[in-house]
Amino acid sequence: QDGELISTPWLVALRYLRSWFLIDASIVFSEWAAVILAAIEDGTRTSGSLKILRLAKMGKMLRIISALRIFRLARLVESFVARTMSESVRMSLRVGALSFAFLWLNHMVSCAWFAIGRLAPSSTGQHWIY
Fold first, then answer.
1. How much is the pLDDT for 108?
2. Which pTM was predicted?
3. Which of 66, 77, 86, 125 is the most buried (most CB within 10 A)?
4. How far apart are CA 69 and CA 49, in angstroms?
5. pLDDT tens, residue by residue, 51-107
């Protein structure tokens, strides 16, 4: 509020209730309703199945809207960093973030390669990863 950090729990809760609570509650409600309707149905393809599909689509749409908060948060963090930190600290943070991203990507590729080695079909029954 006006650039001031508010950490009083009831004020934070009140702000959340006024801003994102309705969207988050709608997401949870649509997911619960879809699960409950799926459990009630006997697996037959009826109009109830279409309702479940609509609820699932609504939940996905609401999750996308909710994810837009991340972009707003990123802009806030970026402006905070630009106002408070020197150029050398910002450059160090960028290098650290790029290094972390490179290591994460390397880890994901390695996991995929390991899975291929373990799960790929083999004519002998043996794999090159034991």
1. 94
2. 0.42
3. 66
4. 31
5. 666 666 666 777 777 777 777 878 888 888 888 888 888 889 889 999 999 999 999
Reading the block at residue 92, the tokens are: 């160090």
Phi/psi at 68 (5° precision)? -65, -20
Sequential DSSP letters for the chain? -TT-----HHHHHHHHHHHTHHHHHHHHHHHHHHHHHHHHS-S--SHHHHHHHHHHHHHHHHHHHHHHHHHHHHHHHHHHHHHHS-HHHHHHHHHHHHHHHHHHHHHHHHHHHHHHHHHS--SSS--S--
- What is the residue type of 72? R
Look up residue 60 and give its two tokens: 């996905």
